Amino acid sequence: MKQDEKKEKTEHELQSEADREKPKRGGASIVTYIAVLFAVAFGLLLLSYFMQQRNTAQVIQGLQSSVSAVEDLQSKNTDLYRQVNQLNAEVKAQQESNQSLKKQQEAMDLFWQIERLYLLSQYDACGETVAQMEEGDLSRFLPSENIHAFARLSPAQEYAKIQKALE
User: Fold this and answer.
1) Which residues contact 147 (CB under 8 A, 6 or more apart)?
2) Which helix (H) or strand (E) holds 90?
3) Residue 45 lies in a domain
4) What is the secondary structure of 102-159 as a DSSP string?
5) Assigned domain for 120 exists
6) What total number of domains does the chain contain?
7) 44 or 2: which carries more pLDDT confidence?
8) In a domain, 51, yes or no
């Protein structure tokens, strides 16, 4: 029995030793496997990080070009507003000039009527036309300079002379 016991003991010891060696071999391969998995995972993380950086850089570049395009549009818009204001001012000045020219034309038409009536000695009709000229305050639109080389007096001076003669 002793021999059987020894045999069992030896088998038991061999089995224990084998059990101890298997986990060591399996443990080393598991550690290596885990290390490789961590290395691959870390590599994938680095790869995804660099890809994300590249995408972010492209997005930032796109946004910067959009911002510069918006700034250009704002600059053009400001220039256009400035031009619109300038053109509106020019239109207003032209309208005022047009009104002034219309008043001057109306004043000159009445002046020529007054002058003709005065020369024809139709003093009553001339007085009525002078009153019409004064009602519209058109005498101030008569040119104060000679408009013809052969005229001695300007229309404003001639009108004042006729007005004094009618009083």
Assistant:
1) 154, 155
2) helix 2-119
3) no
4) HHHHHHHHHHHHHHHHHHTT-HHHHHHHHHHHHHTT-GGGS-SS-SSTT-SS-HHHHH
5) yes
6) 1
7) 44
8) no
Work out whether the CA dihedral 38, 39, 42, 44 comes out positive or negative: negative
Q: What is the model's pTM?
A: 0.52
Residue 119 lies in a domain: yes
Q: Convert the pLDDT of each residue in 90-99 to its tens digit.
A: 999 999 999 9
Q: How far apart are CA 30 and CA 162, in angstroms?
A: 126
CA atoms of 118 and 157, how far apart (whole Å): 15
pLDDT tens digit sequence for 20-29? 555 445 568 8
Longest dimension (CA), the chain: 174
Among 166, 56, 65, which Cα is nearest to 121's? 166
Place of tokens 């994300």: 52
Parent domain of 167: 98-167
**Cβ(146)–Cβ(153) below 8 Å:** yes
Distance of CA 69 to the CA centre of its chain: 10
The answer for 94, left when phi > 0, alpha when psi is -120 to 50, beta otherwise, is: alpha
Of 149, 114, 118, the closest CA to residue 131 belongs to: 114
